UniProtKB/TrEMBL annotation:
Belongs to the NlpA lipoprotein family. The keyword Signal applies. This is DL-methionine transporter subunit periplasmic-binding component of ABC superfamily. SUPFAM superfamilies: Periplasmic binding protein-like II. InterPro entries: Lipoprotein_NlpA. It is a lipid-anchor. Keywords: Lipoprotein, Membrane, Palmitate, Signal. It comes from Bradyrhizobium vignae.
Length: 260
């Protein structure tokens, strides 16, 4: 007994010390896959002394504002073109520190089984932010639905459409509201996280779907002043583990794809 008591006390002290020295960070996410994946990351990071708290944001604008203001320490919800656009427009001092997953964007319809069935003059809703709206226009161009000006890059707008044979009417809506637009349009482009929230299957339901490649891989962003802090490496390494990759593949069945 005299030998066991010091061992027990040592174990208790070790646990207490690990808890006391754990660093806590707040990460902004959008509801759905981003939040679910970070929940899988949390116990892995905790073993390395990093306590992750998740804050869910319902749109794509606030997470970067909150990060830049120091209200959160990281966010996980966006791709590089979107981040670049936000930085150019708002002067944010934030940057990517690691890639996460890819969400091929889809075009959905309650009225038509194929995009070719949309009549002349049909209404198609697209996200109203430059990155995701442009992403949909590039998808439609690649599928032969429209033609765009040369050199439009990753952020074309409806003003860059040079040919629109079916005279489609493009309606710009907030990305989070896109599922609600389905009843009022012939087709709606919906980001994967909002599609899954609305009960849509991002693999089976789209009548058009983006190829799972290109620049639209999502990322973890932090403030520039924090990028070299030890917790950043712990966070990224915890995300980039076989356990998290297996979780993504099993949980989302192709709707979300690991990109590391």
């Amino acid at each position: 007994m005299s030998f066991r008591l010091p061992l027990i006390l040592s174990a208790v002290l070790a646990v207490w010390s690990a808890v006391a020295s754990a660093e806590t960070i707040k990460i902004g996410v959008t509801p759905g896959p981003h939040a679910q994946i970070l929940e899988a990351v949390k116990p892995i990071a905790a073993k390395q002394g990093l306590d992750i708290q998740l804050l869910e944001f319902s749109d794509y604008v606030v997470p970067n504002a909150a990060l830049d203001a120091g209200e959160i320490q990281a966010n996980s919800f966006q791709n590089q073109p979107y981040l670049d656009n936000q930085k150019a427009d708002r002067g944010y001092k934030i940057e990517s520190v690691g890639l996460t997953v890819n969400f091929p964007i889809g075009v959905y319809s309650k009225k038509h089984k194929a995009f070719a069935d949309i009549p002349e003059g049909g209404k198609v809703s697209i996200p109203n932010d430059p990155t995701n709206g442009g992403r949909v226009l590039l998808l439609l161009r690649d599928k032969g639905v429209i033609k765009l000006k040369d050199g439009v890059g990753f952020k074309p707008t409806v003003l860059d459409i040079t040919e629109n044979p079916k005279k489609l009417k493009f309606i710009e809506v907030d990305a989070a509201q896109a599922p609600r637009a389905l009843d009022d349009v012939d087709a709606a482009a919906i980001n994967t996280n909002y599609a899954t929230q609305a009960g849509l299957d991002p693999v089976k339901d789209p009548i058009l779907r983006e190829d799972p490649k290109g620049p639209y891989v999502n990322l973890i962003a932090v403030r520039t002043v924090d990028k070299d802090k030890p917790w950043v490496k712990i966070l990224v390494d915890s995300y980039h583990t076989p356990e998290v990759k297996e979780f993504v593949l099993t949980k989302f069945k192709g709707a979300v794809l690991p990109s590391w």
